[in-house]
Model the fold of this input.
Amino acid sequence: MKVGLIGVGLMNGSLALDLKSAHPSVLVYGVSRTEATLSNAMELGLIDHRATIAELKDMDLVSIAIPVEATAFLLPKILDAVGPNTLVIDMGSTKTAICESVAQHPKREQFLACHPIAGTEFSGPQAAIRNLYKDKVNMLCETHKTRPELLERARSIFTNLGMHLREIEPIAHDRHIAYVSHLSHITSFMLGKTVMEKEEDEQNIFDMAGSGFSSTVRLAKSSPEMWMPIFKQNKQNVIETLDEYISNMEYFKSLLANDDYTTLVEEMKKINTITHILKPEIKINGK
Amino acid sequence: MKVGLIGVGLMNGSLALDLKSAHPSVLVYGVSRTEATLSNAMELGLIDHRATIAELKDMDLVSIAIPVEATAFLLPKILDAVGPNTLVIDMGSTKTAICESVAQHPKREQFLACHPIAGTEFSGPQAAIRNLYKDKVNMLCETHKTRPELLERARSIFTNLGMHLREIEPIAHDRHIAYVSHLSHITSFMLGKTVMEKEEDEQNIFDMAGSGFSSTVRLAKSSPEMWMPIFKQNKQNVIETLDEYISNMEYFKSLLANDDYTTLVEEMKKINTITHILKPEIKINGK
Done:
């Protein structure tokens, strides 16, 4: 199997590690804007060869994992370049704009829009880890638009990585993901900002921040180059989540300001039930 | 050594586990409002005997780890009850009201106000774990008001648990901790509320929530009975943090609404530097 990676960071680097473990004969070709990133990916054994988009003609799989604006821009050119048997997938955290970018493309049936719900707050080739995708969900969009045998190839690759597959339409994907992913990145960044502005003496953060704060602010380490385009492409949905979240924060503040501790406790108890929703041992049955 | 525990949940239960490991001869007496909790603590081996406050006369250490309002209410009565060589400490997440509750108490010098920066989102005797306090910071307040040999006893106990000791005045403690602890509990609860209100179909949360969301919403599992009194006692500081945080959320929203992506990226890059502040390998030198 020949695999082309557009972007050789956390997502595609981790994909390469698992594909190479499962299929020792796989050959991985890396494409990146940045020569240093490609060298790094070579040294880490993530890719076997440097390549350009023009050289991806006879790949079995081309996986795009770069900022979502760049994906929407490059995807039509990548489809132009690949041969008739290449499957092209993307890993972006938004799906509407990316699907729209190739809606009329003559090779649309060679593309599958994906969103693996996997990742860490780190980025770049050195962030790649084994088993990143194991037991994670992969959201597949507009599967009816992908040529059946290429769709089957994608399903087989993902299932072998240990992923659970779900289907969703791009517009629904972007609306839901704004709540369960994009919003929490913003709450985390703004928590970091609020504390850093106040606590000019960093020693106080060092000393007084417990594991709770670290956990809540973890996503504030995420890459701005990766996340700004996500917020931009999903702007309307993200603004809606911000409005609802800010209104909930104002509500909490008003309960406290008005000494309405009975309602405060009732609200917190209702929210406590999220424990059941987030049980880590829950497994999703793929189809 | 004889130790009395007022409250036998996560904090005091974990303390008991470590004290019993270090000193096999230690005898632990548990006090709780709830008989079932005491039985649970007995079965788990956290305590050796049930007790009442009146029976704590000859303890070497009495540790209070109950909701902070109850601490401020019971602390004077506990000091009334103990003998002249008992050290009384509390573990509460607020310090001003608790210190004020015994400011004029004739046995004030037998009390040391503490706040170990340690814990999990779980509560009750079954949440107790070994080494909860190892390598954690313990904030000590008004140490000059504690009788020197009792202060030395406290330092020795904490140091043997592996804790790093810092001193801080109660008012400063409550102001800083509002930012690095209380605020992140509220952002987490309100994130949970926002997502639960929107995602009536829990399957969507199951499927699309990644480790980032789980991490950011983890504190929304915290005990309302423990946290409401903290927000209440630290109301003015907490409201100040909420004002600043909400204003930062509004600012982020305005950058997005106005398509000011250059500033958005600059802001996110500045906040990224929190990585250095939160380095997990940082050790605090105790004094």
